[in-house]
Design brief:
The complex is a heterodimer. Chain A is mainly beta. Chain A has strands at about 5, 10-15, 20-25, 30-40, 45-50, 55-60, 60-65, 70-75, 85-90, 105-110. Classes of the chains: A mainly beta, B mainly beta.
Amino acid sequence: QKEVEQNSGPLSVPEGAIASLNCTYSDRVSQSFFWYRQYSGKSPELIMSIYSNGDKEDGRFTAQLNKASQYVSLLIRDSQPSDSATYLCAPREAAGNKLTFGGGTRVLVKP
Amino acid sequence: NAGVTQTPKFQVLKTGQSMTLQCAQDMNHNSMYWYRQDPGMGLRLIYYSASEGTTDKGEVPNGYNVSRLNKREFSLRLESAAPSQTSVYFCASSEAGQNEQFFGPGTRLTVL
């Protein structure tokens, strides 16, 4: 059973601060990793993907990957109230398109 | 383009009743998926279809059946609903070899 672990939160951050979300996974052969954002009552939407060790930046989002430690993180800089949502970590299996989702971290950005 | 559509949006069933959840995508994607989402559990894969004419079990297939009717449509059937199947069901699609899965709006199912 492949496992993906995330702190369920809520992670409460003041507006303008950095939100740091962590994810660990058990499948050593996972090569691709995705972060989805899900607003309450809505469907998930992809916000970041990362395939290589190191950092990947896209606007206010930075994904960090360490395959040796089986760890992937997401940083949200200059957090806005509109960033309040649940963030789902999803490694992709080595063969095929199947994703395994973590339970998600709920983020609350307070004005 | 509508993307991924699901019907119905809400459904209440009694234990033992059957129903089919419908999903359609207009993005010409080869792969389609059915997930269920329970509080604190993330998304769990029920069944998927890598391409038209093929279906495979995911993590939690018991109590469900699927049909890949054509490239556009992928339905999920509950033959005899149980309270444990109360959940939000999401359909998703992706292009083969591509990483992003696009999700439908979901069906909120309650089994009494």
